[in-house]
From TrEMBL:
Lineage: Eukaryota, Viridiplantae, Streptophyta, Embryophyta, Tracheophyta
Gene: LOC107459152
Protein family per UniProt: Belongs to the peroxidase family.
Keywords linked to the UniProt accession: Chloroplast, Oxidoreductase, Plastid, Thylakoid, Transit peptide
Organism domain of life: Eukaryota
One MF term in the entry's GO annotations: heme binding
Protein name per Swiss-Prot or TrEMBL: Thylakoid lumenal 29 kDa protein, chloroplastic
Amino acid sequence: MGVSFLSTLPSLLPLAHDSSPTTTTTIRHHPRLELIGSSGSLVGTANAADLIQRRQRSEFQSKIKGTLFTAIKGNPDLVPSLLTLALNDAVTYDKATKSGGPNGSIRFSSEISRPENTRLSGALSLIEEAKKEIDSYSKAGPISYADLIHYAAQSAVKSTFIAAAIRKCGGNEEKGNLLYTAYGSNGQWGLFDKQFGREDAQEPDPEGRVPLWEKASVQEMKDKFSAVGLGPRQLAVLSAFLGPDQAATEAKLASDKDVAPWVDKYQRSRETVSQTDYEVDLITTFTKLSTLGQQINYEAYTYAPPKIDITKLKL
């Protein structure tokens, strides 16, 4: 059996979070701001209002990641549950009715208490506490549960990879963070960070859409993944999301001829220094999972800058 993604959990504590800003927006029609290069040549035009919104979203994302890093650092045992919470919130998506998906509905008591979610209450409690803190400093209203649940899973994933790098550097935090940055995989999170602005569901999603992963057969897992547009490759790479014991999940998945080659691929990748194949495919798959059926509001968490009364300025 190869190295488990979750085997890095005991090393989660000595981490430094990555809060490098990622920015995104769409271009709309407002007064333009000319961007001039140092040579004096025109390199492009940008919308002044858009640039302000980009900065606002970027700064908010950075603070969210800091809050989640601290919360996860203090509760590393909740990493598997945070991953499963995000998965179970997302795979309620139904293509035929275009309902469900990563919409935060798992926060409702009637949904979190379902058999497939019974071990996830601790993860939801962490989300609730983080939300209180995040909402206290948000300048543009409360963060949606839909966004927060999937950002928490992202933070859990990144923390675990950083912990692995620190362990490879003999526990040296600074060297471990530099090593992880040198891998280059961190940049693959760009698309995920752009998908920021999910809306919360106002009622629980229908029952019966999420398997009890530990008891489900591989065929049942494959069928569920197929129903939301994912295949054997994605099933293998999300093995850490399918319950608390990744090794047991992968042993089960390895019994299926369609999934087994991918299980082997990712086990071998996790034994390398960079884990690149595994990490890149995991990021790509999780990004798709986190947006199933969602319409992203790219202006979410932006706000009008304070107005300045120029008559009161001292010149």
